[in-house]
Amino acid sequence: MKNKLKYFYSYIPLIIFFILVLFFARQLILKEDPSELPSVLIDEKFPSIALSELPGYKVFSNKNLINANGPSLVNIWSSWCVPCKIEHEYLMSMSNNIIIYGINYKDNKEDALKVLELNGNPFYAIGADRDGMQSINLGVYGVPETFIIDREGNIRYRHVGPILEYDMEKIILPIINKIKQERL
Amino acid sequence: MIIELGHFLLALALSLSIFQFLVPVLGVKFNSDSMMKSTSIIAFMSFILVLFSFLSLVYAYITSDFSVSLVTKNSHSLKPLLYKISGVWGNHEGSLLLWVLILTFYSAAVAILGRRLPLKLLSLVLSCQGLIAAAFISFILFTSNPFVRVFFPNAEGEGFNPILQDFGLAIHPPFLYLGYVGLSVTFSFSIAALLVGKVDTIWVKWVRPWTLIAWVFLTIGIALGSWWAYRELGWGGWWFWDPVENASFMPWLAATALLHSSIVAEKRDTLKAWTILLAIIAFSFCLLGTFIVRSGVLVSVHAFASDPSRGLYILLLLVFFTGGGLALFAKRAPYLKSGSLFKPLSREGALVINNIIFTSAAATVLLGTLYPIFIDAINNSKVSVGPPYFEAVFIPLMVPAILLCAFSPMLSWKRAIIDNIIERIIAVFICALFLASLIIIIHGGSASAFLGLFLAFWLICGTLYEFFIKVGIKSSFKTFIQRALNLPRSAYGMSVAHIGVAIFIIGVTVSSAWRIDIEKPIILGEKIIVKDIELTFKDIKKVEGPNWNADRGEFEIITSNGAKYFLYPERRFYPASQVNTSEPAIMSGIFSDLYIVLGESLKEEDSYAFRIYYSPFISWIWFGILLMAMGGILSLSDRKHRLGYGLKQV
Prior knowledge:
The structure holds two protein chains of two kinds. Chain A is an alpha/beta fold. Chain A contains six helices and five strands. Chain A has a five-stranded mixed β-sheet, with helices on one face. By secondary structure, chain B is an alpha+beta fold. Chain B is built from 19 helices and ten strands. In chain B, the strands form two sheets. In chain B, strands 2, 3, 4, 5, 6 and 7 form a six-stranded antiparallel β-sheet that branches. A four-stranded antiparallel β-sheet of chain B has the order 1-10-9-8, covered by helices on one side. In chain B, a hairpin with a 3-residue loop joins strand 8 and strand 9. In chain B, helix 5 runs antiparallel to helix 6, helix 10 runs antiparallel to helix 13 and helix 11 packs antiparallel against helix 12. The mean pLDDT of chain B is 87. Classes of the chains: A alpha/beta, B alpha+beta. Chains A and B meet through helix 1 and helix 2 of A and helix 11, helix 12 and helix 13 of B.
């Protein structure tokens, strides 16, 4: 009996190892990017949030999204956020073809205005969320974040982190084009 | 042309490695001595081929040949020569080639030094090494070829991640890989022993020094990485429990356990199956680390391009080598002869506890590192495990290990009598308690600071006491010197390494307990006092480097004894890769480091954000690790532990 157990024990490391491998294989095959965060809001209406005005710019509210006749982007940004500055030029280049709304997050008015003045304004309308309380409804926890909204005002995609060339070409624009091709 | 030659040589090395695997297997099967003997020559030639292949890539980097895709992506014509060379292994493809170079180097070393090993054992070891080499070379050739050319060469190259341009980091990967891959030798030895079905004395005599050499390199490699993180990342921290750091720490923990179990295997001819299992596990952790770092299954701050198809290949390698090794172990281990018995209270018993603690620690780090994967698989949510988990579970595990470490060298083999050592333990305990309390009473401090100091003093006192007993504490000066000279170097090695652990603990404890952080805007000309040091923000100006430009601040430092220094923290901008980095200015001393990081300029005139850290004793962390490695080298220089055991001494 004792001998039999000895034979069994020597298989334990092997068994543990293969359980580990199963987990690895799952992670690899699903090919999920671990930095990608799913949003609970996918395919839900964009939540109604009350944002204040940024002087000299149209105010953004979720009413803008409801009667839209095309896809749009909602971008959450700040003047103090370095990745947002890198992202800015890509937003500028997309703004000719698609409506982009901005949510200015936990920022002060002067700084935000200065950024738009210096680097240009890619936004059709901007709402300011001074204390970040409104953006909680969106599940925002870092800037920049971008939501893709379809014709009916539903969130289709959430992008965490800056939109760089790769993200724009391979992720954002394909989804936009898909939405454009959908019939009403 | 040269790069094509390198590519060709690597392909040739692949076929040779396959031979290196097959020839000895056939030799053993048909009992042909000549076939088995030729394995050594194949191993040596395969090393030469990989060496030239590697040198061709180095050549492409030095001459900035931007028609090579890898060079374009990772180098820049303006880069200093040292970083052009280190650029070879600063990326996925090149680092794998370095990995293979070191692997074939070790195989060649075993082939040359192992002439007196039983022929069957030696050729099976080389066969296993050949199989590992074949697997990794084909991984390089089929998924990550460093020799690919581009059609439209870029004139300048895209640059190289600037924070990697650092001397410590330039030599960090070679050391780390010398450690990782060194463990492949003990792995191959274990597989060969399982295949042969017996563990000879000569096997044990070989495994210990080869583990030791891998352990020394791994220790230095990890220390270099941590030293780099401290100087470059700009947060004043030295260990972040990041998955990639853990990937190097797990093999280290397993190798440390292996190091101690091989002592028992060597001295007492027991625990042999366990030593074999540990050798398999230690190398598996290296493969696992490779998988974690390069497959992208976990998020890490470290810069390696991850690719799921590569991940799949490494996973297959892991399944093949680890799975194969463990399956062989499961089948054969029960038939290995078990060695001599011992009482729980004995040197063997203490080393077994050491092994249990170190393998549990490795398992704990493994669990924390992989936890995000488990949770994702079980309930589909994303979590990340941070330093609080690791600190909460790791430190309590290490406390008993340190307590044990001080007095287990005093225990005798086989059966120790507690009465013989109880007085010594009490003496060491009182001494450590006194010293730790003294410091806490003078400087104040938390309970954890007290615990850390107590453990360090306990270990120092215990090690020194044990050393003095060995050389005769009551003997005359002359016999004292004589006995000290006659003591084997491995005994010194152990004492030095254990003192190193104590120094390390002091560094960790003191630098975290008495650290001062200042993070605030500082106006030009403002004076700040940290502890008893006076800092004045004197000036800020623009400077140009070879491939960057920077804002450089100037600080005048006046220490308590009136000495005057200047520190220049920088904020660099690298145009080639459009990246900002901060270069902290560090005034390193034996007893404290002053660490200044220049942040962004603020709106108010001449005001900049600064982070200033005062960390006492932080350099003791690396000094302690260095001492551990020194201890390893001392042990290695002991004539009992020569790498080529069995060869006649010249």
